[in-house]
Specification:
This protein is α/β, with parallel strands linked by helices. The protein has one domain: Rossmann fold. 42% of the residues lie in helices and 20% in strands. It has five helices and five strands. A five-stranded parallel sheet has the order 2-1-3-4-5, with helices on both faces. It starts with a strand and ends in a 7-residue tail after the last helix.
Length: 122
């Protein structure tokens, strides 16, 4: 099994699409939708990368990013259709920014391969 990826996305169809793309390449994938579930997963599981949507129904993606960076040393890549948020997210600690509407599945795989190299540490 390759690296482990946590996807924080409340659009179930899109989350499943990302999961399928990554699992086809032998990545281990977990799906969550909010801050509480994200932190719970990261505290209990080893993972190598978080793919994080900014617009979530329950929580702000930026707040989740801040909490992840405060508690863990794990790379976070933002997946969003808000390209104007790129610089702020990078300044908050994201290692990458994917514009959903401009990125093919191969592009997502490239980003995951590039950044899924560190382990979560509390």
């Amino acid at each position: 099994m390759k690296s482990s990826v946590l996807i924080v996305e409340d659009n179930k169809d899109l989350a499943d699409f990302y999961r399928i793309i990554l699992e086809e390449q032998q990545y281990s994938v977990a799906l969550v939708e909010n801050l509480e579930d994200t932190l719970s997963h990261l505290k209990k599981n080893t993972c190598d990368l978080v793919l994080l949507d900014l617009l979530l129904e329950e929580d702000s993606g930026k707040d989740i990013l801040k909490e992840i960076k405060r508690l863990f040393t794990i790379p976070v890549v933002i997946i969003s259709n808000l390209p104007h948020e790129r610089n702020e997210c990078l300044s908050l600690g994201a290692v990458g920014f994917i514009v959903k509407s401009e990125t093919e599945p191969e592009g997502i795989l490239e980003v995951v391969k590039k950044f899924a190299s560190k382990k979560c540490l509390e």
